Amino acid sequence: MKYFKGILLAAALLPAIAGAAIVQVQVKGTGLSEDTAVESALVQALRQVHGMDIKSVQQSSQFQQKADGKATTEVNVNRQSRIEAGGQIAGYDIIDSQCGADGCTASLNVRVHKYEVPGLAGDKRRRIAVLPFTGGKEFRKLVASQVQEQLVQSRRFAVLDREQEEAYNAEKSLWQSGDVPLAEKARLGKVLGLDYIVTGSIEKAGVHRWADNVALTGEREDHVRTYATVRYQIIAIASRQVKWSDTVTVSLTGVDNLEQGAVVTGGKIAQELLDNIYPMRVVSSSNGEIILNQGGKTVKVGSHYHIYALGEMIVDPYTKEPLGQSETKIATVKVVRVHPKMSYATLVMGDLNSIQNGFIARSGRAPHSASGKEKPVKSNVVVPESGGVIL
């Protein structure tokens, strides 16, 4: 059976269902009867709007025989293809239908339900999920939760959930039932695959309490310290390659709160991930303030950041892998206001006029003096046109 490529005509919003739309396409199908021609056209419409899944299997066999000193070889090839398409059709109009000795053709205007995921399209950002960490019982849950929370607030990744399977499957069963409108079924098939996963293990975590006696007075002096050591990895799902691995150590003297230790540990892991993949950048400079493209809980008022200009690309002489661009520190700024999606900083050291959009901002301590020039240092930043850093 042969199908003809249709033309995408228009898209109209379906006001009754948020995020739903109706896409209208014009298609032509063929078949032995008018009904089969219409069916083939409807399938073609679904393929145009939602795509299709093609599975191909090829089997070959070879037979060789020899007679009168001559060898003959016979090769048989069996190839099978299966094309699958799915979706919901809101309706269709038959434009033209004709039948002849070779079969029937039908031209249709078909209206197909299509669901657009609300918000920023996740497929434009790298998709990542934070999997449950191992060890540490409740501590591991708090750390993983904090990592996920800060990655979401950074808005650099499409952070996907891989834990609430029971709730998702319950909602999916509802969509597949006969209790919801046909347009709601267009939500099916929108689950995104992952680019990366973050995994980790709690090496140690706890609260250490001890006491000392003051030599002069003999009085007892109590001490407390919350500590944690966590190892984490970023793994590329497609290749299972470990793209980044590190160990974070936290020691909070005077803190008798393991939950606070988990928050600090998770925040430190998230910040390292962001610094290595999506370092903060300058997006604007006006009225004596520098605007950075990150906010929320990932940035604190009073924090200091060093501003770096990017230079030449550094390439590893052995692997030929880009290591990043050289960085030259040109200024230090202090955060004075934090918004959900960006933060504002004022100049502490350097020349405000030398700061340009796109410069890198890295966390640092307040400068002790404003003297001295900075030497270029090697960066781990490789910036593709689509943004982010090449892992």
Structural description of this entry:
It holds the Pfam family CsgG. This is Curli production assembly/transport component CsgG. Residues 1-20 form the signal peptide. InterPro entries: Curli_assmbl/transp-comp_CsgG. With 391 residues, the protein is α+β, with helices and mostly antiparallel strands. It has three domains: 21-52 and 86-114, 2-Layer Sandwich (Dodecin subunit-like), CATH 3.30.1660.40; 123-278, 3-Layer(aba) Sandwich (Rossmann fold), CATH 3.40.50; 279-368, Thrombin, subunit H (Beta Barrel). The chain contains four helices and 18 strands. The protein has a six-stranded antiparallel barrel. Strand 14 (304-315) and strand 15 form a beta hairpin. The chain is elongated and about 110 Å long.
Task: Detail the topology: elements first, then pairings.
Elements: E1 4-13, E2 20-31, H1 34-50, E3 53-67, E4 70-84, E5 89-100, E6 103-115, E7 126-130, H2 138-154, E8 157-159, H3 165-176, E9 196-213, E10 220-236, E11 241-253, H4 258-277, E12 280-286, E13 289-292, E14 304-315, E15 322-338, E16 343-350, E17 360-364, E18 377-378
Organism: Parendozoicomonas haliclonae
Protein name: Curli production assembly/transport component CsgG
Signal peptide: 1-20
In short:
The chain is α+β, with helices and mostly antiparallel strands and 391 residues long. It has helices at 34-50, 138-154, 165-176, 258-277; strands spanning 4-13, 20-31, 53-67, 70-84, 89-100, 103-115, 126-130, 157-159, 196-213, 220-236, 241-253, 280-286, 289-292, 304-315, 322-338, 343-350, 360-364, 377-378.
